Amino acid sequence: MTKANSHIWEWNDLNVSWKVEGSKIEKNFATLLVHGFGASKEHWRQNQKILGEQSPCYSIDLIGFGSSSQPRAKLDGDLSSQNDFSYNFDNWSHQIAEFSQSVIKKPVILIGNSIGGVIALRAAQIMKSSCKGVILINCAQRTMDDKRLYEQPKFMRHIRPLLKALIRKRWLSKNLFKNAANPKFIRKVLEKAYPSGANIDTELINMIHSPTQREGASEAFHGFVNIFNDYLATELMENLDLPVDLIWGESDPWEAIDEARYWASSINCVRSLEVINGAGHCPHDECPEKVNNRLLKIIQDAT
């Protein structure tokens, strides 16, 4: 199925939207782009076509985002109901791994931004030799995970159980989502994520806003904000036997550059760190020329 240059792949009774550039290029590998929270495959608007000139380049909407299915969220402890979905890193990673096996059908290099980086790392574990490398762009450090709770102030540690109980309430997460899912709020978040202000345009705001208007959009939010104990990038990389390259916007307000530098100096599989000066959480869209040049070089060297 094709719609506006996008295709639909059916996975576990869910629809997964995807695109490809450079499909006619004869290479023995491909690249697969994995977006972050609240984004979609369209967030690679300034990268995919260029990468597709070097090798086949795929992008995908994770379940809950973009044009993919947005099923009802099942939290830990909930009773199962028909067509529900556990929004977690393992399920998203299996989505990526099975898409690669069923649709791409050749070894891949995974490229992930934000939570897409954690998903790429876990998918690489699942795929084993079918994954040739991972490129992390401002990978989510997940500082609020239970396993990092000891790093939080004492007050935050004490109120954590209350916060968890509250955010499980669907009425609360739905109202939080409703307040966030408007163009003015989205622009304010983007102004933090893109500190230079470059490329914050109507296309970008609409790309993020449009999927939030679909019937099931609040369910992905409900599922995501209730992820308190899941994979950390550092844990995944410690057991990964393939190359990982980092690209990092230096001025990211959420994912600290200092932690990225620590990863680069202390984790064996990390072979490079490219810092994009002045860029924030999404340097691939804020400073695409610099990021594209680095991506092309990494991919060329890897193959």
Short description:
This protein has 303 residues and is α/β, with parallel strands linked by helices. Helix content is 41%, strand content 18%.
Major sheet: size, sense and barrel closure? 9 strands, mixed
Indicate the mean pLDDT.
94
Cα distance spanning the termini: 31 Å
Low-confidence residue ranges: none
The string of secondary-structure elements, in order, is EEEEHEHEHEHHHHHHEHEHH
**Beta strand %:** 15-25%
- Number of helical regions: 12
Q: How many beta strands in the DSSP annotation? A: 9
Give me the CATH architecture, please. Answer: 3-Layer(aba) Sandwich
> What level of helicity do the residues show?
40-55%
What can you see in these coordinates?
It is a single chain. The chain has 303 residues and is α/β, with parallel strands linked by helices. The chain has one domain: Alpha/Beta hydrolase fold, catalytic domain (Rossmann fold). Helix content is 41%, strand content 18%. It is built from 12 helices and 9 strands. It has a 9-stranded mixed sheet with strand order 1-2-3-5-4-6-7-8-9, sandwiched between helices. Helix 10 links the parallel strand 8 and strand 9 (270-276). Helix 6 packs across helix 7 (202-212). 42% of the residues are buried. The mean pLDDT is 94.
